[in-house]
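Fold it.
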Amino acid sequence: MRGRFLTALSLRIVSDVADDAFYAQLDDQLLRTPQFFAGAPMVLDLAQAPGFADPAALGDLVANLRNREFRVFGVENAGALDRAALQGMGLIPVEGGRDAPLPREPRPARATPQAPTQPQATPAPQAPLNKVVRTPVRSGQMIVAEQGDLTVIGSVASGAELVAAGNIHVYGNLRGRAMAGCHGDEGAHIFCQSLNAELVAIAGLYQTNENLEEAARQRCTHIFLENEKLRMEVIA
């Protein structure tokens, strides 16, 4: 067994009824940002939609979302929904993280005579675990640097994903998705030699290809957060 980092979209439902207006708004969003949803796993957040606690209503919603190629696999804040009903719809309940157990109080040790010890040197702080990829990243690949920066020496194809706790450097054409500061680091940056990404994000704030600044397209670009907005600065 190995733990893996997985990014998933959370679709927060704020209506108790999925009517024609609901699906019309959803279809409009799909037309404007198709790359953002393509192939992405999705969780439904029902905290503000108690009406979908009815299995029939939820089943109809899930069927309509899957017909639109949303990969719905889980439900958050499902309330009293029966787990057997969720399983019948191919869903799992997604719960929040749990608190770590408190450390136990150490037992008092018996007093025993000890020889004087030499003072121990303070260990040097460990450097961040940066990751370097020396080959192009193909469509469908997902490269994750859970600590530190991620550097790609090559191009990133459409349909590929880069995820890093720190900065992302791409020495080539960036056409896939790049998500820096994935643990909430708002000081993270994205650098690429040619920008034509499907999506760029820093600390959860993102822009899709349709909203990229025209002056930065296919240019050497520096992307960073400023006043809670993504800025794109052409380097050359």
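The chain has two domains: 9-94, 131-234.
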